[in-house]
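Progress note, sequence design subtask.
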């Protein structure tokens, strides 16, 4: 993966309030759309194109054969819905430009979860890195080519308030805090099945609020 843009935090002020989210989105009908290297790379280029446009910060990611996990931060006034519209719409357009005849690319729902403390941030980072290992795709996280555990893309730093030792941070149960007003993020498994059938098949992360995009 050569020739990737070198990204810093240009366009984002340290004084701006940022919110950090763990996001999961799946390919339509959970097909293995991203298993081809060219397709996974196209998705990564799409994500980082919008990062370069200062739409959000990217801390961690993994592109699995049929879904993706992201750990991103947005300015206080920017919603997760817009970020996902850009990523999903941008990739759908890009793959169409390659000559693909796919009529549907993404599942209409995605999962979002507000990350509120250092311990949770650390757990989610580990979850993202270990995803390919749990699926028996590789033996170690760094062996997987489309993961932040092994990437040429420059990742954004851990948000200041989520760094170990940050003042005022204590582990606590998240209330989900989504822009769509869903219930607690740890009580959503039943609702996820009701809205999207077997929305957790392959994506492994149904315990977070769901949104449509």
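Output:
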């Amino acid at each position: 993966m050569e020739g990737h843009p070198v990204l810093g935090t240009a366009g984002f002020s340290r004084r701006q309030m940022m919110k950090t989210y763990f996001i999961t989105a799946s390919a339509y009908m959970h097909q293995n759309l991203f298993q081809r290297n060219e397709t996974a790379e196209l998705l990564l280029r799409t994500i980082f194109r919008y990062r370069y446009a200062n739409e959000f910060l990217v801390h961690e990611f993994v592109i699995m054969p049929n879904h993706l996990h992201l750990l991103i931060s947005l300015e206080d006034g920017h919603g997760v819905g817009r970020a996902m519209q850009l990523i999903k719409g941008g990739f759908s357009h890009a793959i169409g430009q390659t000559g693909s005849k796919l009529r549907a690319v993404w599942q209409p729902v995605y999962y979002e979860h507000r990350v509120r403390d250092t311990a949770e941030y650390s757990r989610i980072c580990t979850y993202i890195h270990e995803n390919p290992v749990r699926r028996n795709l590789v033996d170690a996280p760094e062996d997987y080519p489309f993961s932040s555990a092994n990437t040429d893309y420059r990742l954004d730093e851990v948000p200041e308030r989520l760094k170990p030792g940050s003042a005022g941070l204590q582990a606590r149960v998240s209330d989900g805090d989504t822009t769509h007003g869903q219930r607690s993020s740890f009580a959503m498994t039943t609702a996820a099945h009701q809205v999207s059938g077997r929305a957790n098949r392959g994506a492994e992360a149904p315990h977070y609020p769901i949104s449509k995009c």
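The mean pLDDT is 78. Work on this subtask will continue into the next period as scheduled.
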